[in-house]
Amino acid sequence: MGELSRMIQQRLDDAYASLRHAHSENDTYLADIRQEEIKELRRIAANHDIGVEPPCVD
């Protein structure tokens, strides 16, 4: 896995964790931001033919 792949996967993992936290705190603003961040990271990954792992479930 290249550096870009690792960086995108790490940022996705962090964004999904933050999204779960936002949902648990009923923070709709943060949830919206994280969903857009995830969407953008997945778009970048697709543009570079990088497969991303599904989010980890705690």
Structural account:
The longest helix is centred in the N-terminal third of the chain and has 22 residues, at 3-24. Helix content is 72%, strand content 0%. Helix 1 runs antiparallel to helix 2. The model has no long low-confidence stretch (mean pLDDT 92). By secondary structure, the protein is an all-alpha fold.
Strand content: under 5%
What structural class do helix, strand and pairing data support? Answer: mainly alpha
Helix-strand string: HH
Q: Poorly predicted ranges (pLDDT <50, ≥5 residues)?
A: none
Summarize the structure.
The protein has helices at residues 3-24, 28-47. The protein has 58 residues and is mainly alpha-helical.
Question: Mind sketching the topology for me?
Answer:
Layout: H1 3-24, H2 28-47
Helix pairs in contact: 1-2
Task: Please describe the structure with a list of short key phrases separated by commas or semicolons.
58 residues; mainly alpha; 2 helices; 72% helix
